[in-house]
UniProtKB/TrEMBL annotation:
GO molecular function: transferase activity
Keywords: Plasmid, Transferase
Protein name: Nucleoside 2-deoxyribosyltransferase
Carbohydrate kinase PfkB domain: residues covered: 151-238
Pfam family, one: PfkB
Matches recorded under InterPro entries: Nucleoside_deoxyribTrfase, PfkB_dom, Ribokinase-like
Length: 396
């Protein structure tokens, strides 16, 4: 397998993460125990080249590095925040040229890869205006496009239901996979009905690079192992659940992957109740951030701050909050600070049989007793808590 993609520095403040990976190196590292021979074609500035080559070699990857002038760094405040790109170098770089039986190509910050392949998988990773696989002269006998739901809508201008067939025809592709986050992925294959591939549960969620691993696993199982597209995508979904539980690389074979059960998302998610204090600026920020993230996942959120407000009597506030709670299928409780109102809402929810995902980095084990003892799912990692709550909303 040849992987053509960028190698970047990744920095995250919470949880702390500072590594050389990026889509190219991570994808290549992911499949070294699956594919017999993995080559990475990538760009790197001179000051990074040795480190990248050594990192690749540690995974058994042969790195073919083309020099570029400036390093590229992606910074995250937390894993679900929008990454900030730091790059001041040239964008028009001499393209990489790769040829092989099975090639995985990623869109890159700068430069491109011209591919000639029997089987090619293309993950554009270019946000609002994904490029065409063929636009730089790339050719493949069999082509699969992997992109997320937002990219699919942006590039076609139509709802997701119709985007796959448009991209199939426009790219003359055999397969188009549209990733839908906690809803799984839709596989569109030429001449066949679309198939929904489920997501799989994991104990924790390390989000950075999960899309890279999906594309890498799919490229191997479809382009090299010869599985049908829907089976290859299912193997990729299982691989992601294995990977995100602690950034586990390289991937094991399907039989040895560690992941939870699949779940079948509902056609429409149910309401999530966002419980947490909002009386100080840091508290308000966390409520706003969490609500925005959940909304971007397609989850309808009831937030007492936004849906009931504050300028009412205590009776009206409590009545409004509890009415929203009664109509919700799951609670995500932000518990740091041990706010009395939030604790009351958790107890009310558990008495009503409503599942609760609690997030706290600061409460000691003694203060978790009643939460854990009444069946709350307690998480100290923000990304994991948000994903578990969203998945409950989609499957309740």
């Amino acid at each position: 397998m040849i992987v053509a993609g960028g190698t970047y520095r990744e920095i995250c403040d919470n949880p702390r993460w500072d590594r050389f990976f990026g889509s190219g190196l991570r994808a290549a590292a992911a499949i070294t125990e699956l594919s017999k021979d993995v080559t990475l074609a990538t760009y790197a500035p001179p000051e990074w080249a040795e480190d990248i080559a050594m990192s690749a070699a540690a995974f058994g990857v042969k790195a073919l590095i083309t020099e570029c002038r400036m390093p590229a760094t992606f910074r995250y405040f937390h894993q679900l925040s929008t990454a900030e790109l730091e790059y001041d170098g040239e964008l028009d770089i001499e393209p990489l040229r790769v040829e092989g039986d099975a090639v995985l190509r990623f869109g890159m910050v700068a430069g491109s890869a011209i591919v000639r392949a029997k089987y090619a998988v293309f993950d554009p990773q270019t946000g609002a205006d994904p490029e065409s696989f063929h636009s730089n002269g790339s050719v493949a006998e069999h082509l699969a496009i992997v992109l997320n739901g937002w990219e699919a809508s942006q590039t076609t201008g139509v709802p997701l239901e119709g985007a796959g067939s448009i991209i199939l025809a426009r790219e003359n592709a055999d397969v188009v996979i549209i990733k839908l986050g906690p809803r799984g992925a839709i596989v569109h294959s030429r001449g066949r009905s679309s198939v929904l591939v489920p997501p799989y549960r994991s104990d924790s969620v390390f989000k950075i690079g999960s899309g890279d691993v999906f594309s890498a696993a799919f490229a191997y199982y479809w382009g090299e192992a010869g599985l049908p597209p829907d089976e290859a995508a299912d193997a990729a979904s299982r691989s992601v659940a294995h990977f995100v539980d602690g950034h586990r690389l390289p991937l094991s074979g399907i039989e040895a992957l560690c992941h939870g059960d699949a779940y079948s998302p509902r056609e429409l998610p149910r309401q999530l109740y966002l419980a947490g204090p909002f009386f100080a600026l840091p508290q308000r920020w966390l409520i706003e951030e969490t609500r925005d993230i959940l909304t971007s996942m397609g989850v309808p959120v009831f937030s007492p701050l936004h849906d009931v407000g504050t300028a009412k009597s205590a009776h009206d506030l409590a009545s409004g909050d509890l009415a929203g709670l009664d109509e919700s299928a799951v609670v995500l409780a932000l518990l740091d600070g041990a706010d009395p109102g939030t604790i009351f809402e958790v107890g009310y929810a558990r008495k009503a049989g409503i599942p609760v995902v609690g997030y706290s980095e600061q409460l000691d084990p003694l203060h978790l007793t009643m939460f854990e003892g009444t069946g709350c799912v307690m998480e100290s990692d923000y990304t994991t808590a948000v994903y578990k709550a969203a998945m409950k909303a989609w499957s309740a």
